[in-house]
């Protein structure tokens, strides 16, 4: 079933041969009652407490939960206690770890010195005389499958028994349900945060839209010789502004290359504004990157219209970009507008731009010169195809 090297360290059969004390069912009943109370009232505290209970019940030197992340092909160590607590958050490969073997066996697994087979354990400087693992599985209507493992480590070999495996299995069943509850709570809170962010963003966009339209009306009126010319110019700019808003969307396709280039995005977003000079190569974008680039430069143009170079007839924006190695480098430079200085606090729009760049693992630097704002943005090209 397993490769010879792994089979050599699996000693699960020894559990039934080892002596163990009488089970304390009353103590277990009270412990589970307390855990159930915590699950109902403070679900976030259940798993750390459950791990501590597993360590105490098995007289282990360390214990923890390995949460399965199939998308990443790995386990993440969570709620680690005892001698291995420093490795909280460590990732272990799904297809080459004691946890992976345990899920494949679908039952308790006892191993002796797994570091002799798994080099990532050995390279971390971890010595494991004996480890007992049990799978965490959810069996519920509409949801079934492995979610991770619960494990305990002994200070010496020959420590764990069949009784330890029984207690750990019962705790694992409780832990699987608790883990799903915690993850559901996290998803709910994330959804609420996203909804609040969306509400703030929509309010911000409406206020900006009104400010931009007002600025366009004033500038168009100054450069028009008749009401007919004003109407023609303003209508064209409003149509361009509408197209830009359509591009800044909140829904996406499959995240693959969309066929849109950075130049196309910038041309659409910046078409409502006069005196914007652009220079740079075609860079293909994925759906998410298309939305992000549109949002970033729509926000920068809006701010320039309200406070910067685009708020005056003489002001200009020079926008240039290039690909250097594995990075996209963009420079936004304003000149000819009012004298500017760094604001005392960061507004919602600036925060939105900064967080959008960060989501693509990018960097952003703002420089406030008297003649105008200069911004540099660097984003890994690999993150532009998503």
**Helix/strand class:** alpha+beta
Helix content: 40-55%
Tally of strands: 13
Rg over CA atoms: 30 Å
CATH topology of the largest domain: Beta-Lactamase
User: Regarding CATH, which class of the largest domain?
Assistant: Alpha Beta
Cα distance spanning the termini: 39 Å
Shape: elongated
Poorly predicted regions are 140-144, 249-257
How much of the sequence lies in strands comes to: 15-25%
CATH architecture of the largest domain: 2-Layer Sandwich
N-to-C order of helices and strands: HHHEEEHEHEEHHEHEEHEEHEE
Number of domains: 2
Q: Identify the strand order in the major beta sheet.
A: 3-2-1-6-5-4
Q: What is the arithmetic mean of pLDDT?
A: 78
**What about the largest sheet?**
6 strands, antiparallel
Full CATH superfamily name of the largest domain:
GAF domain
Count of discrete alpha- or pi-helical segments spanning 4 or more residues: 10
Domain Signal transduction histidine kinase HWE region: 201-282
Protein name: histidine kinase
Organism: Bradyrhizobium ontarionense
EC number: 2.7.13.3
Structural commentary:
By secondary structure, this protein is of the alpha+beta class. It folds into two domains: 185 residues, GAF domain (Beta-Lactamase, 2-Layer Sandwich), CATH 3.30.450.40; 162 residues, Histidine kinase-like ATPase, C-terminal domain (Heat Shock Protein 90), CATH 3.30.565.10. It is built from ten helices and 13 strands. The protein has a six-stranded antiparallel β-sheet with strand order 3-2-1-6-5-4, with helices on both faces. It has a five-stranded mixed β-sheet with strand order 8-10-11-13-12, with helices on one face. It is elongated, with a radius of gyration of 30 Å. The two termini are 39 Å apart. InterPro entries: GAF (IPR003018), GAF-like_dom_sf (IPR029016), HATPase_C_sf (IPR036890), Sig_transdc_His_kinase_HWE (IPR011102). Keywords: ATP-binding, Kinase, Nucleotide-binding, Phosphoprotein, Transferase. This is histidine kinase.
């Amino acid at each position: 079933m397993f490769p010879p090297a792994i089979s050599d360290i699996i000693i699960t059969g020894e559990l039934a041969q080892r002596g163990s004390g009488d089970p304390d069912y009353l103590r277990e009943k009270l412990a589970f009652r307390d855990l159930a109370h915590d699950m109902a009232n403070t679900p976030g505290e259940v798993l750390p407490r459950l791990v501590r209970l597993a360590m105490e019940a098995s007289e282990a030197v360390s214990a923890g939960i390995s949460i399965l992340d199939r998308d990443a092909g790995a386990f993440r160590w969570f709620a680690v206690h005892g001698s291995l607590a420093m490795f909280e958050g460590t990732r272990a490969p799904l297809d080459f770890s004691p946890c992976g073997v345990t899920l494949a066996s679908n039952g308790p697994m006892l191993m002796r010195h797994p570091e002799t087979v798994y080099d990532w354990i050995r390279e971390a400087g971890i010595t494991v005389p004996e480890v007992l693992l049990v799978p965490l599985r959810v069996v519920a209507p509409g949801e079934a499958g492995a979610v991770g493992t619960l494990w305990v480590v002994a200070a010496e070999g020959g420590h764990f028994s069949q009784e330890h495996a029984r207690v750990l299995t019962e705790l694992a069943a409780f832990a699987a349900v608790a883990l799903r509850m915690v993850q559901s709570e996290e998803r709910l809170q994330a959804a609420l945060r996203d909804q609040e962010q969306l509400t703030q963003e929509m309010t911000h966009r409406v206020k900006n839209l009104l400010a931009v339209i007002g600025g366009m009306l004033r500038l168009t009126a100054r450069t028009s010789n008749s009401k007919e010319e004003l109407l023609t110019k303003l209508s064209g700019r409003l149509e361009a502004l509408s197209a830009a808003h359509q591009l800044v969307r909140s829904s996406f396709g499959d995240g693959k290359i969309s066929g849109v280039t950075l130049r196309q995005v910038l041309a659409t977003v910046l078409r409502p504004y006069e005196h914007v000079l652009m220079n740079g190569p075609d860079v293909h974008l994925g759906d998410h990157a298309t939305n992000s680039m549109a949002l970033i430069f729509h926000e920068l143009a809006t701010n320039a219209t309200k406070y910067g170079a685009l708020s005056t007839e003489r002001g200009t924006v020079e926008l240039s970009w290039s690909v250097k190695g594995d990075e996209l480098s963009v420079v936004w430079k304003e000149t000819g507008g009012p004298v500017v200085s760094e604001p005392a606090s960061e507004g919602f729009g600036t925060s939105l731009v900064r967080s959008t760049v960060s989501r693509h693992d990018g960097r952003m630097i703002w420089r406030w010169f008297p003649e105008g704002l200069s911004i540099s943005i660097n984003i890994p090209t690999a993150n532009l195809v998503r």
